[in-house]
Amino acid sequence: MEEQLRILNELSRILHFSTEIAYNSAHLVYKFNPDEQWYSFSAWYEKNHQNYSPNNFDKISNEAQELCKELHNEMQAHTGGDWRKFVLTLNEKGEAKTQFIYDIQSCMDEFKDD
User: Fold this and answer.
1) How many Cα neighbours within 13 Å face the side chain of 27?
2) Which structural domain, as residue segments, surrounds residue 21?
3) What superkingdom does the record give (predicted)?
């Protein structure tokens, strides 16, 4: 549990310090499907109903994806949790909220109508 908390804190730190914007909320989403051999990563900030990208997206993307993979492996090893989508949201104070989705993910999810 200590290692999971360390990884979550590091992801929160990366997200929080990858912009100069005083955001209303910050978002990080990592999802993957090992059977189809793909993954997806996104991060953005919201301020006054507008979205902004992080500074140096490639750097944050590479570092955060490795941490997300570590988090998945750590959680699966210790709790058996095999989530396929992870959402990290920070509020304007930098307080974190996490969500783990265990449903199988499709690379077409973003293009489906609700």
Assistant:
1) 14
2) 2-109
3) Bacteria
> pLDDT tens for residues 33-65?
998 899 999 999 999 999 999 999 998 999 999
User: 4 in helix, strand or coil?
Assistant: helix
- β-partners of residue 96 are 90
The phi and psi torsions of 108 (rounded to 5 degrees) equal -95, 0
| Per-residue tokens: 51 | 């979205």
Residue 43, strand partner residues: 28
| 102 part of a folded domain | yes
pLDDT value at residue 81:
82
pLDDT tens-place string over residues 74-97: 999 988 889 999 999 999 999 999
How many separate domains does the chain show?
Answer: 1
SS3 content of the chain, % helix, strand, coil (to 5): 35, 30, 35
Helical H segments across the chain, by residue range? 2-16, 57-79
